[in-house]
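User: Good morning. I'm curious how GLP would be positioned relative to this chain. Could you predict the structure with it bound?
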Amino acid sequence: MSIDPTSPVPKYAQLRDLLLEWIDETQLAVDGAVPSERELGLRYGLSRMTVRQTIDHLVAEGKLYRVPGKGTFLARPKIEMSLRMASFTEDMRARGFEPGAQDLARRIDPARGHVARMLDISPGSPVHHIERLRTADGEPMAIERSNIPLSVAPGLSEESLSGRSLYQLLEDDYGLLLDSGEQTIEAGLCDPTDARLLGLPTGSAVLLLQRRSFVNGTCVELAISTYRADRYQLHSTLDPRQ
Ligand code: GLP
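Assistant: Good morning! Here's the predicted structure, ligand included:
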């Protein structure tokens, strides 16, 4: 396989496909080295700039990573984010990772605009605001910002969440067994605050999630979260009857 100079597909994009094919065919192991930019340039008759563009894209996508002075290597496969109503804890355990949470902020705020509307409560009603850095095997994965009306879980601010699942706590201590939900997921760019917490360069690709969870038609949580796009991909099974 080689680069087709007459193709309307840009050369850096052709090289991307060739490189991914090469990784697949050679069954390159995670952390295995891909050929250097110089070698790739020579092999495919491309300028160093074009090769760098391809590698930059694959790094931004989370498929490769660079080690300065050493080279470029194959990254771990992304974690599949299931589109079920599972908690972060359940999701991570199901994938063989040890879930973790680090408290970033806990406070009670009066509900304003968007939060009040989404939770379907009057503006000014008190809401628990919980910000956590979520980790898998100690590695930062996401920042979750949960908003829970005080009325549904009055004593929540006194309870420790360290090493504890929020969903489990809501069920055990408040009898809140989530029975429905809705979620939107969109692409975004990481702002400086989240980038620092997630250990990413500012402007990295992220997935922005907004989830509302309900018990008997009452919204009990509005979560607005930032997930690393270099570590997550969405996965759903498709059923033509639904
Ligand atoms: C998921 C949801 C969040 C929710 C969290 C609870 O990640 N997107 O809305 O707050 O699970 O996770 P846990 O029960 O592990 O604290």
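The pocket of GLP is lined by residues 87-89, 99, 144, 146, 165-168, 209, 211, 221, 223, 225 (CB under 6 Å). The chain has two domains: 11-74, 79-235.
Let me know if you'd like a different ligand tried.
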